[in-house]
Design brief:
This protein is mainly α. It has one domain: EF-hand (Recoverin, domain 1, Orthogonal Bundle), CATH 1.10.238.10. It is built from five helices and two strands; from the N terminus they run H-E-H-H-H-E-H. A two-stranded antiparallel ribbon has the order 1-2. Helix 1 crosses helix 2. It is elongated, with a radius of gyration of 20 Å. Bound molecules: calcium ion (2 copies). The site of one calcium ion (CA) has 7 residues, from strand 1.
């Protein structure tokens, strides 16, 4: 019996602290998931990167900053380039 109570209690603590962390991460994960979905939808030829036309059609706001986001200037945006830019923007906002 005692073991059961201890297990139940520690289970609650793990869940509680896990939930706090999850809440914090949730926003970032939601943004990532949304980006993933939008990227995949925009990537009509499914080569894992967006050409200018794909960006313009599927992610117009991204396409406005296409040249800025295209870090290696290969004419395509990868998910990593967009995520990297998002993190940069977040950093800039936090530093102000
Ligand atoms: Ca593509
Ligand atoms: Ca690129």
């Amino acid at each position: 019996m005692r073991y059961l109570i201890i297990l139940t209690m520690s289970g609650c603590c793990v869940l509680a602290s896990g939930a706090a962390v999850a809440q914090d991460r949730e926003r970032g994960q939601q943004a990532m998931q949304e980006l993933n979905e939008r990227f995949d939808a925009a990537d009509t030829d499914h080569n894992g990167k967006l050409g200018k036309k794909e960006a313009k059609a599927g992610m117009p706001r991204v396409s406005e900053h296409f040249d800025q986001l295209d870090a290696d200037k290969d004419g395509y945006l990868t998910k990593g380039e967009i995520v990297g830019a998002m993190i940069d923007m977040k950093d800039q906002r936090e530093h102000h």
